[in-house]
Design a protein that fits this description.
It contains 8 helices and 4 strands. By secondary structure, it is an alpha/beta fold. The radius of gyration is 17 Å and the shape is globular.
């Protein structure tokens, strides 16, 4: 999910540009709260939002969910859980360099040119192990906890995925987008040459970052205007 504490201005921009309500979830974090604590927090919020749509003055059929990095991975888990539980349907999911696969950098070596900046294979092993409460890349993990390990992606909402080409997550993001398309899910994928994980946050005023942000904002606006 996008963080209200770290980047409130971005959430304000989304609300103003789309004339919409933005809800940021202060979900529980690992390792103090392991999965599925975060998933249950954001799923409960989605249900609350859907059930109180009239009181909040929103259209329950046009709820979009989105996030960046680990938050985007939680969003992917959320839409899978909502589908599997018969919960509220979402109109769109926005995944900005999402963290989708615990096997990256553990049981699956990272690409030679990826993951050298900001988020490394070691970071990924630590992050996933903290979240799952078991070593990243284990032979089996609880069903639904790791989006990339979910075999059936049919019925998920239209999706936008964006990442940098030298981001550690680039390969898993491309593979996930390909699988979504094979499952019949309307999917848009953006891969930015030479961009590392979180580059848009590190240098937000750089032309490459402005184009990146403008791209996902345009996809979100299009989804909400339908």
């Amino acid at each position: 999910m996008f963080s209200a504490d770290r980047n409130p201005r971005l959430l304000q921009e989304i609300a103003l540009e789309n004339d919409c309500l933005v809800v940021a979830v202060d979900y529980r974090l690992a390792p103090e709260a392991r999965f599925p604590a975060a998933l249950e927090d954001i799923y409960a919020t989605l249900c609350w939002l859907h059930d109180n749509a009239d009181a909040l003055g929103i259209d329950a059929s046009r709820i979009a969910v989105g996030g960046e990095s680990a938050g985007a991975g939680h969003v992917a888990s959320l839409t899978i859980a909502a589908r599997d539980r018969g919960g509220p349907r979402t109109a769109f999911q926005l995944l900005v360099y999402p963290m989708l696969d615990d096997r990256t950098g553990s049981s699956r070596p990272a690409a030679a040119n990826a993951g050298r900046f900001i988020w490394t294979p070691a970071s990924n092993r630590f992050g996933w192990s903290s979240l799952l409460g078991m070593p990243a890349g284990s032979d089996t993990v609880p069903a639904g906890w790791v989006p990339a390990r979910v075999s059936d992606l049919v019925g998920l909402p239209p999706t936008y995925i964006a990442a940098g080409a030298i981001d550690l997550f680039a390969r898993e993001n491309i593979e996930f987008a390909s699988r979504l398309m094979e499952a019949g899910v309307p999917t848009e994928l953006l891969v930015v040459p030479g961009a590392y994980h979180g580059f848009d946050l590190a240098v937000p005023d750089a032309p490459i970052s402005r184009r990146f942000t403008a791209s996902w904002k345009a996809a979100l606006k299009k989804a909400l205007s339908k």
